[in-house]
Here is the input.
Amino acid sequence: MRIGIHSLLVSCLIALFTPQASALTPAEMQDWSIVCAQTATESETYAAQEFQTLFKGLTGTTLPIVNDISPDTPAVYIGPDAVQATGKLSPLKNPGDETLRVAVKKNALYIDGGRPRGTLYGVYDFFEERCGVRFLTFDHTYYPPAASTTKIPRGTRTHTPTFSFRWSYYGETMKYPDFATRLHTNTVTDDAKLGGRTGFRLVMHNVASLLPPATYGAEHPGYYALVDGERKLAMHGGGPQLCMTNPKVLDLVVEAVLKEIEKNPTARNINVAHMDNGSYCTCDNCAAIDAREESSAGATIAFVNAVAERVEKTHPDVLIGTYAYQYTRKPPKNIKVRDNVMIQLCSIECCDFHAIDDPNCPENRAFCEDMRIWKTKAKNIFVWHYNTNFKGYQLPFPNLRSIGKSVKYFSENNGQGVFMQAAGN
Here is the structure.
């Protein structure tokens, strides 16, 4: 298994590869052109430029970029408009935002995909998977020896990523978004040239901002969690938790969520997530739900489900994101998560020296048991994984042998997005 960040995430892609008997070599392509239609998107135009740059790095030859060419001329065709103009391939049926297709023929190479990122990812896929190129750092790309004579099998390869949200939170990917894009990280830039970012958002602690205690606390302390017999309005971890069974809290949170949707119409999820502390509500009503569900997540999931039910009436395609984190990580016994709720499952207690599902690591067994149950209860699971030690934030982290296996485990257990928290800042 390759250890590079991109390979760890993209190793989980759904792939279809149909090889044919003969092969093409880059040397045979050195008198070709790169065709990118005038109607191409900004990202597809950049994809053609990236192909030109990487092909030169691979072979030493700069291929010209043109807008049009005879469809029978040997060439590299970049983007759905250029590919369809040849009449050689059928259009992709309902491609996702990042679905990519790479078709190697005797006298042509076709790279296209869904918009906005599929074609650009297709270019990187071609050089990595077919030519052995590796994007190692922002300023160093590896090209294998004798690259010009690399045999590239003819055939068509189609990928749709398993993870719709991919964020490797390292300083290098945050500082160099073009490098992050080469690694298929789709969360760090709005630059249209780089395909922008996915509409999915990382779940963040936010309930105290949905109902600011400075606004409501003095007159309505009952909106906030009862902790040790007190309605506390100021806590560590960003602020107080809410009372999840107060009906007025539900009304106000729904109102706040609908306003967020109006301000962010392209967002795929809006979050209703508890604050970063364990001071959850212990009032009689909240405590009764938690007791019935045998989990402190009980009242929280019941509340988020209620928010999602109301929001679905006007915005059925928007997910309500919430945490399975610390006191809410254990799934509720009876409650099933609504289909328009997104669970961000966090592995902060886990050992990262070993893979999450390593049978020889007892520290991770409880997490695996929780994920096993969550995948039966929730349609949408995103994972917040940890690639750093907060006590030694910039020290090397000994997980190179475990991270790929952990990512594979997440993909096989209904994981649809991964945030890898490392030394990103």
Q: What stands out?
A: The two ends are 28 Å apart (CA to CA).
